[in-house]
Every structure is written in C-alpha cells, then in structure tokens.
C-alpha cells in the first residue's frame, strides 16, 4: 500500500524558534501538508533538536536530547520541520552521535530516513507542483539558509512552489547562498563578525528592490529582520511557509514585539 495514496501520517517538528517567536509558521506548515493530503500530528512531548548543545561541543547532552526526539517521533511515516537547520541536525548529525551505541544509531538512522524539510517534503516526496492560495501581487527575494542548502539540498523546491503563486515576482540577490551571519550560537560568540556578515546581506537584499524577504529558517529570518529594521529598510520579512499557505494577515517578522528580540 502506498503511503501517499493512503494519507501518510506526518509529525510536525515545530522547532524552538517557531514555537517561541512565530507559531504562525507551524500552522502554515500544517495547512500546506493537510492540503496535500497528509494526516498531520504535533506531538506534545517533542523537545529541542539539541543543536545549541551540539554547536557548543556538548555531545553528551546532545545525545540525551536526541534520544528523547527519536522516541517521540518513532511511529510516524514522516517527520517534517519548517527549518533546514533543525532538519539537518536530525537527518545528518543524529546518526553520528551514536557510533558507540549500535541500537540507538539504528534508531537514529531510521529517523534520519523519515526526516524532511518542509518544502523538500512537499516537492520531493509528495510531488506537489503548485499550492492553492490567493494571488499575491508582491516582489520577493529568497535567502538560502546554510543548513537547508548545504546539508539538505534545499534550493529549487521553495522557488518552484513560489512560482506557482500568481502575482509573485522573484528577484534573486547577487549572493542568495551567502550566510546571513546568524549561525545559532555563532552570533552570540562572535557578535562583531556576525554583524558585519548580516550588514552585507541586508545590502544585497535592499539592492534587489524586493518588497518581501523570504527564507525557510526562523533563525536567519529573525537575524535579517532585526538588521533590516535597525537600518530603516522597508523590506518586510516572512517565512516561506506563511506565503505559500496564504497566511499573511499577521504582522511581518520584526513588526511585532515577538519579532523584535534579535
């Protein structure tokens, strides 16, 4: 029996930043997957993917966190995250954490095989070629997050879906694949370098003349939105899932108190 034909059971990995700063992204992800024929669940017992600890070199705590995540998501056909960084952490780095624990490594590899970034899941797994949403007359530009691009190969998928939305005009930056300077704990440890990187990024964004900046990672979006706002830029910032789902009634990232923390 085909999982696709029988409505696959999908778990949404919400991510910490979506949960704390932009819940609308999670609701948009659910809408997109349900519209595509999935049965979507959001396990309440899910926790952080462990990436902050991992990036800080704390492998023991990362492994303990990973075991919780593996157990929570063990019984689903697919696990989907609206984030390339969290998706990359689970898909690429979990199996290596358990080189000395064969049973956990097997379970981590099983989860890795079911883990997908949202737009990649829609396009590559479900074979969705277009989304049903109202026309949106706006000029957009798209930032490729480092983890989504380099760990998961996410680049063409969000653009293909955006092209299906009537009225959207995509204007590429000169360097859409260049880091925004967030890098998780990097922006905390190396603030001056991070600021220099994001300053170059916002200059590239502004040069496109776009009305709206999109990306698939909340960390990148919060970082770029904060810098754009401090510079007085008119460019609005949203997660790609919100635009694809037609859920653009909320203030853009950086225009509400929740979006001003970075």
pLDDT averaged residue by residue:
92
CATH-scheme architecture of the largest domain = 3-Layer(aba) Sandwich
> How many helices in DSSP terms?
13
Can you tell me the CATH topology of the largest domain? Rossmann fold
Number of domains: 2
Give the helix proportion (percent range).
40-55%
Radius of gyration: 18 Å
The rough form would be described as globular
Order of helices and strands: EHHEHHEHHEHEHHEHHEHEH
Portion in beta strands: 5-15%
Q: Report how far the terminal alpha carbons are from each other.
A: 47 Å
Q: Low-confidence runs (pLDDT<50, min 5 residues)?
A: 257-262
Q: What's the level 1 CATH class of the largest domain?
A: Alpha Beta
Major sheet size, sense and barrel closure? 4 strands, parallel
User: How many individual β-strands?
Assistant: 8
Oligomeric state of this protein:
single chain
Q: What's the arrangement of strands in the largest beta sheet?
A: 2-1-3-4
Query: What structural class results from the helix and strand content?
Result: alpha/beta
Quick description:
The protein has 262 residues and is an alpha/beta fold.
Topology:
Elements: E1 9-12, H1 16-21, H2 23-35, E2 39-41, H3 51-55, H4 59-72, E3 78-81, H5 84-97, H6 102-114, E4 115-117, H7 118-125, E5 138-142, H8 146-152, H9 156-163, E6 168-170, H10 186-189, H11 191-207, E7 212-215, H12 218-230, E8 236-239, H13 240-244
Parallel strand pairs: 1-2, 1-3, 3-4, 5-6, 5-7, 7-8
